Amino acid sequence: MSDAPVPHESQKEATWAMPTLVLGALAIGFSPIFVRLSEVGPIATAFNRVVLALPFFYFMVWLQPKETTRAACTRAVLMPVLIGGVFFATDLSFWHWSIKLTSVANATVLPNFAPVVVVIAAWLLYGEKVSRGFVAGLTVAMAGIAVLLGNSFTLSAAHFVGDLLGLSTSLFYGGYILAIARARRAASTTFIMAVGGTVSAIILWVVAAAVEGQVWPQTAHGWMIALLQSATVQAGGQALIAASLAHVPAGFGATVLLLQPVVAALVAWLMFNEPLSAWQALGAVAILGGVEIARRASAK
Length: 300
Fold this sequence. Notes:
- This protein has helices spanning 11-28, 31-37, 42-51, 54-63, 66-72, 75-101, 104-109, 114-126, 132-149, 160-183, 189-211, 220-244, 250-256, 260-272, 278-299.
- It is mainly alpha-helical.
- It is globular and about 55 Å long.
- The two termini are 22 Å apart.
């Protein structure tokens, strides 16, 4: 798929949008695993994820035509890129805090309200139409999330702050998706990931240094985990998602990201001997089915 901004969508690039989006969703599904393996705090882990990918993105920006970069350096284009960077840093900070203050299941379920946020906001702000078929697919996928993680999901006063942070994550990630989808109309993926990533990295560094103190890994193993996370989740997954958002509705893009818990659950099964029950497997199937229903409705 082309990295360039897309003023007029071609059929070829639209065809590649769906597999690109799915591949990106699968890649960022590894994010909770890397948070678990990291030797630094959760917010420092997020900072490493973003900052270590920046040299790659800036190198790609340097390679692209200079007129493409100059065209993106306008207020109308830079504003959604910068806002997206702020939303993304806040999303990661809140989500990683929620992992520490509530159960892993709650921290996984609550942020997945992001598609609902995106659909409603896209309808109110940009007039994007929402079909009944798409709503049906989103509902099935959300139900699958509830079944996949339902046994571990609990609400209690002790976890109130963590749960609130997890729910807030869905608002900020939804805002990030909308901002990036808007920016991709006039800016390349690499430009957005470089400039927006710089904003995110600065915010995450400040928060990590203030809250956790230790920002960088201290061992070769820690650096290997950080580099793998940055390459897989940020330079791979997040960039693929940003590229696809030039070709798919923001609401559908957010819905496909519901595949993340499925990936996380399967990897946890294989790596940490956390097997899926029959009900959890049914939930995973429901998520896949819901995404397919939403895809068909969006295609129509």
